[in-house]
Write a structure and sequence with these properties.
This protein is of the alpha+beta class and 525 residues long. It is 26% helix and 23% strand. It is built from 15 helices and 21 strands. Strands 1, 3, 4, 5, 8, 9 and 10 form a seven-stranded antiparallel beta sheet that branches.
């Protein structure tokens, strides 16, 4: 449907039949000004701040009415007299009609006519790369990070007023295309970097600095991730004033909260590492630029002392929206049954804890990846003759109970032996949690020996990660680390938060500010 109207010195006003379009009476809309071609595009909207279609009585009919009195609209059509309105189901295009003069030499007649080539917005977006991005100005972004953010115009238009939703891990990749901004991370209690590794592999994140007290763990971190790790006691660490971090990331040691240390609350409160959670809070409160944080720990950190430590966190960090989730590795696509608690805090919106549950993988799936080229292939504790004999009695999935009683160790007879002791892994099943796998004599699925460091890494979801230090250090470091698929899920949850934040920020700016077209780019000022 097309109509031609006279330009008004007060703005842009016209009525039309809105039925069978998204511009019926009461519907909302936004507009885009493109000065270069003297066009205005009107698109549907559901935002509360959008303009609303009015109504006008024309004869016996009630029609939809667009009434724009903006100064920028007037200026856009300053030098024209007639406007052509092209009304489609999802778009209204207002174009300036220009006078074209022609001379007929045969008849010696000069004539003129009004003409304009109407360009369909959707087709233009599909065929051209010139109008391809919305650029948010530098001063706005300085409030966030100082970096530039680009979003594809097609993506903005297609999701302009849709409710922001939780993206899957696959969707976050497509959403981050064109996102030049990097989320700056301070990693604490970094260990050998297993929790940091999914962030390191994602270009959306930049781990600016990492802090770890164990020297050999720092060397492993450097080998796999980077030189930005510092060997320092977290109690002595202070953030430099010129650094601006977006995300605090890490897990205070879990020993104070583990089952072995929960005999009574007095013992828990007196544990030498119990203050490390407060150190995490100190660092978080000392830096005003943090937009979010993630704490990783054992599930008991949520429930210990009737939730005392979680309540303490909420009380001291009132300016953060705090939530938590307990994730299981084999429900995130991993190879183990390990459970970890993850506490999220945010100043930029509520963290969506939704994630896509995936089937776990088997021990056999993990071990078939390992070969002699792996860095830690030969790092293994060789069992003595008696230990090897005990192992021989245990079937896949079995444990110390399957060992003949005359071969039992004295500790077995006390009745307090953990079920993981002399546990043999099964090729066709998920692995148990790899906690102290050397000390409990975790058995290889088909051989009478323990598992190597390389095999422990594979079961933790890592491919040929290089672990340095003594054999005991290597084994304990992998046991302490967060399995890859748990870390990947957490990374996607926190990335989703930031992507929604930046997308919402850009869309709000687009909705609230006039849009101009300069050198064929639509630009927000």
């Amino acid at each position: 449907m097309k109509k031609i109207i006279k330009k008004s010195c007060r703005g842009l006003t016209f009525s039309f039949e809105g039925e069978n379009t998204k511009f019926n009476i009461g519907n909302k809309y936004r507009y885009i000004i493109e000065p270069k071609s003297n066009k205005v595009y009107i698109v549907p909207s559901t935002s509360e701040k959008s303009l609303k279609i009015s109504k006008k009585k024309v004869g016996n009919k009630i029609k939809s009415l667009i009434d724009l009195r903006a100064k920028l609209i007037v200026e856009n059509f300053n030098n024209v007299e007639l406007l052509e309105i092209s009304i489609e189901k999802n778009t209204i295009i207002i174009s300036a009609l220009k006078e074209i003069t022609t001379y007929n030499s045969k008849q010696n007649i000069t004539s003129s006519k009004k003409s304009n080539k109407v360009i369909d917005l959707k087709k233009r977006l599909q065929k051209t790369k010139k109008i391809s991005e919305i650029r948010v100005n530098k001063s706005l972004l300085n409030k966030i990070s100082g970096d530039e953010v680009n979003f594809p115009l097609e993506s903005i238009l297609s999701t302009l007023d849709n409710e922001l939703y939780t993206y899957s891990s696959e969707e976050t990749e497509s959403l981050s295309e064109g996102l030049n901004y990097t989320i700056k991370v301070l990693s604490v209690f970094s260990g050998i970097g297993m929790f940091d590794y999914p962030l390191f592999k994602d270009k959306t994140f930049e781990i600016v600095k990492a802090i770890e007290i164990n020297k050999s763990a720092c060397e492993t971190y450097k080998k796999n991730i980077g030189e930005h790790i510092i060997n320092e006691n977290i109690r002595n660490f202070k953030i430099e004033e010129d650094n601006k971090y977006d995300l605090l990331y890490g897990g205070p040691p879990c020993k104070p909260f583990s089952n072995a240390n929960r005999i009574n609350s007095n013992r828990l409160d007196k544990h030498q590492d119990i203050d490390l959670l407060d150190e995490y809070i100190r660092i978080l409160k000392s830096h005003k630029h943090f937009k979010a944080f993630v704490i990783e720990n054992v599930p008991q950190v949520i429930t210990s002392n009737k939730g005392k430590y979680l309540d303490n966190l909420k009380e001291k960090l009132e300016d953060f929206d705090i939530s938590y989730i307990i994730l299981k590795d084999n429900e995130c696509g991993g190879y183990t049954t390990r459970k970890r608690a993850f506490i999220f805090g945010s100043k930029i919106g509520k963290v969506s804890l939704a994630y896509i549950k995936k089937l776990g993988k088997t021990v056999g799936d993990a071990l078939k990846k390992v070969n002699e080229k792996w860095f830690n292939f030969n790092d293994i504790t060789i069992p003595n003759r008696e230990t090897k004999e005990r192992m021989s009695y245990v079937p896949p999935g079995g444990n110390w109970i399957d060992i003949p009683k005359d071969k039992w160790l004295p500790s077995f007879k006390i009745g307090k032996t953990h079920s993981n002791t002399y546990k043999r892994l099964a090729l066709d099943n998920t692995s148990i949690t790899l906690a102290n796998y050397r000390k409990c004599n975790l058995i290889h699925p088909t051989e009478n020996r323990g598992i190597s460091v390389a095999e422990a890494l594979a079961i933790s979801g890592f491919d040929n990660y290089k672990v340095l230090g003594s054999l005991a250090d290597k084994q304990q470091s992998v046991s302490n680390g967060v399995p890859f698929y748990l870390g990947l899920t957490v990374k996607n949850i926190i990335k989703n938060l930031f992507l929604k934040h930046f997308k919402k920020l850009s869309i709000n700016m687009w909705l609230l500010k006039p849009i101009y077209c300069i050198n064929n780019n639509i630009v927000i000022h």
